[in-house]
From TrEMBL:
Belongs to the ABC transporter superfamily. Ycf16 family. Keywords: ATP-binding, Nucleotide-binding. Gene3D superfamilies: P-loop containing nucleotide triphosphate hydrolases (3.40.50.300). Signal peptide: none annotated. The keyword Nucleotide-binding applies. One of its GO terms (molecular function) is ATP binding. Residues 2-246 form the ABC transporter domain. This is ABC transporter ATP-binding protein.
Amino acid sequence: MLSIKNLTASINGTPVLKGIDLEIKAGEIHAIMGPNGSGKSTLGKVLVGHPAYEVTGGEVLFEGRNLFELEPDARARAGIFMGFQHPIEVPGVSNAAFLRLAYNKKAEAEGRDELDPLEFDDFIHEKIKLVAMREEFLDRSLNEGFSGGEKKRNEILQMAVLEPKLAILDELDSGLDIDALRVLGDAVNKLQRADRALLIITHFPRILETIQPQFVHVLSGGRILKSAGKELATELEDRGYDWVLEEAAAGG
Ligand code: ADP
Ligand code: MG
Ligand code: MG
């Protein structure tokens, strides 16, 4: 589904990604872990086409297409979704209106029927159960005044509505208490399917107890230093990141 080869990217002329190689197949869950400032969020933002980041080299294919030939909204329509670490607030646009707009744009692009407000109402009421969101949140302005946890709930609701092929979740665990983390982790697990892939970006291993990745990659200094199975997340929980950096420095 996603094939990243020797990807390099800069922000304001400073290299942040220094040669990333990563292959993600449909049905797989990958975790990108690493110390703060290592480039984890940058990788996600480069994949969705955030304008602040400049791709300086390498290649990314999404379902065989050159990702960098697609504008950000075309990438979203092609099925790439990213929940942001700091989701935006949009005063004056209700959450429900925003979700319906997003749903209908995608439906139109895929030649499916759009939903009118009443049809969407039925659809969205099924979806909010998944993330245990109270109905009143649908009528609130998009993310305005939402707590950190409510924004994260909303992010997974957006994922449930948009049914992406590749979902990139950046620091889903930030600002969540343990119960909310479990609810959202379970929701993400329910949304996982054989034709969908997940890229979980996280500094802390805890979320990976609920959403269990098959592959764990340690990113540091813009490079993937180590890749292994989910047991690596447990090891990082016990030992932290320093030993991976030392191992990489010693062995190259
Ligand atoms: P992580 O998500 O792993 O904590 P980031 O991808 O957010 O790391 O950041 C990687 C590096 O790029 C850091 O050194 C950070 O300071 C720098 N960086 C990220 N965004 C910007 C920006 N908008 N302007 C300048 N530097 C940035
Ligand atoms: Mg960070
Ligand atoms: Mg980050």
